[in-house]
Amino acid sequence: MYQFNRKEYEERMKWYQDARFGMFIHWGLYSIPARGEWVRSTEEMPEEEYLPFMKEFDARDYNPKQWAKEAKAAGMKYVVLTAKHHDGFCLFDSKYTDYKVTNTPAGRDLIKEYVEALREEGLKVGLYFTLLDWHHPDYPHYGDRIHPMRNHPECSNENRDFSRYIEYMYNQVEEVCTNYGKIDIMWFDFSYDDMRGEKWGATRLIDMVRRLQPGIIIDNRLEVSGEGRGSLYECDPTPYHGDFISPEQIIPPEGICDKEGNPMVWEACFTMNNNWGYCANDHYYKPASMLIKKLVECVSKGGNMILNVGPDAKGKFPKESSAILAEIGRWMDKNHDSIYGCAPAADIPKPDYGRITRNGNKYYVHIYENTLGPLPLIGFDKQDIVDVAEKIDTYETSIQPFEDCCTIFVAKHPVTKPNIDVIRRSEENLNEKIDELMKQAIETVEVIEVK
Ligand code: GLC
Fold first, then answer.
1. What angle do CA 27, 329, 120 make, to 5 degrees?
2. Per-residue confidence at 378, pLDDT binned at 50, 70, 90?
3. Is residue 248 lining ligand 1, measured as CB closer than 6 Å?
């Protein structure tokens, strides 16, 4: 039986914490009506109106290699795709249901192609699997808080046997963990009301998942939803504890520490517009410059960011999403050092002009707002600084004291483009070299376009 072990846990989380940036993909039958993945629930749509979408699902433009390429080019290290969302429709060939992609014009297992495409690009493979199921006859209908039929007394739960549903879900998760080789992340979604933990048969389920997929990373939603934390936070992990906290559409203001004050692993998930599943009318995309800052913010607070794309009915990424990914990629190409493997610069107070991340003895100072004149390096001791590599052309950098604080001149001009400076701080005392190093030319000359 699986039991939490701190050492093994830290070991398996290593790659994921270094990765920092991933892609979420929400795709399924709901992409056809194009009003978001909750369409059946929000519109209380009876299944007779929804099932016909199966006849239309042809995945004509489905090209997971292209998805993988775009994710990789954006600097993402892992991807999580909805194997099954709340509507219950499966993108994989499950032998426990007919409600699956092989019975649509697409006619093939799409998860198989997806995992292969990711591996080819060297990306880690994640699958999202819902705990809810609005299609299964044994899942509560009437009176459930979110089921599409919640307001229909004629859909009473009298003859529904929830244990049958749990068996069904268990079997499908077993399929997903058996038929596609190594799965790196399993993203379960989500617990609500009394539907949590053992109600989902969680101990048995997770024991099976971890047995079939050693080293797999699992989110915390068998215990909670996006707002909750779970038993690892309580410092009393259940056998189905999540490996990471999954705040939704919010960056925890101060990162997340467990009850005893130890930093925790977390991943903030974000939509690019305001929907996870494709929504034809939602053109309210966040600019790439903002999303880059949010990624930096997550890393500066010790978390990951997973950014969503909702492909259209045919399987194509919306063009706005592709453009945003490409722009993020241009930034990541130059600056990924300040993201991968980085952690909070916990010993340095957050400056008012931007955010700092840290990797060992390097500090990455992301400057969002220019100072007039030199940039104050509050929290750094001049004696400790051995090198400043400014990522901007033509300007000289020098370190100057200002009152008690050390400052750097980021430019000769008072107004410069936003940029990143890398400050390398030595653990040893390299006092003697400092003056010489201060005079050295700038190492890196990159300008980061951040609005
Ligand atoms: C929510 C929604 C869901 C989405 C998920 C992503 O819990 O139910 O549609 O998949 O968030 O975090």
1. 60
2. confident
3. yes
* pLDDT, tens digit, 9 for 90 and up, residues 212-234: 999 999 999 999 999 999 999 99
| Phi, psi at 363, each rounded to 5° | -115, 135
Q: Which atom of ligand 1 is nearest to the CA of 26?
A: 10
pTM (predicted TM-score): 0.91
pLDDT of 405: 74
| Owner of token pair 């954006």 | 74
- Specify the pairing of strand 303-309 against strand 21-25: parallel
| Site to substitute for ligand 1 among 37, 134, 189, 223, most atoms within 8 A of C-beta | 189
pLDDT, residue 363, reads 87
- Most confident by average pLDDT, 273-282, 365-374, 385-394: 273-282
Residue with tokens 């596609």: 180
How many helices (H) and strands (E) would you count in the chain? Answer: 11, 15
Q: Give the list of residues 6+ apart from residue 158 with CB closer than 8 angstroms, or none.
A: none
189 lines ligand 1 (CB under 6 A): yes
Instruction: Compute the chain's Rg from CA coordinates.
Output: 24
Best CA proximity match to 126, nearest among 306, 377, 386, 347: 306
Q: What is the mean pLDDT of residues 350-364?
A: 88
Q: How far apart are CA 298 and CA 295, in angstroms?
A: 5
Contact between residue 362 and residue 423 where contact means Cβ atoms under 8 Å apart? yes
Whether 130 and 92 have beta carbons less than 8 Å apart is answered as no
What distance in Å separates the CA atoms of residue 157 and residue 150, rounded to the nearest whole number?
A: 10
Token digits for 25? 């993909």
Rounded Cα distance between 418 and 400, Å, is 20
**CA nearest 332: which of 64, 77, 126?**
77
Report whether residue 146 contacts ligand 1, using a CB cutoff of 6 Å. no
DSSP states of 432-450:
HHHHHHHHSPPS-------
Decide: 190 in ligand 1 pocket, CB within 6 A.
Answer: yes
The number of the ligand 1 atom at minimal distance from the alpha carbon of 269 is 12
* Tokens found for residue 382: 């001049």
- Give the whole-angstrom CA distance, residue 440 versus residue 213: 51
C-alpha distances in angstroms, 413 versus 340, 372, 417, 432?
31, 9, 10, 30
Q: Are strands 375-377 and 266-270 parallel, antiparallel or unpaired?
A: unpaired
Please identify, by atom number, the ligand 1 atom nearest to the C-alpha of residue 82. 10
Question: Residue 369 to residues 171, 227, 280, 342, 375: CA-CA distances in angstroms?
Answer: 53, 31, 35, 22, 10
Angstrom distance (rounded) from CA 405 to CA 313: 56
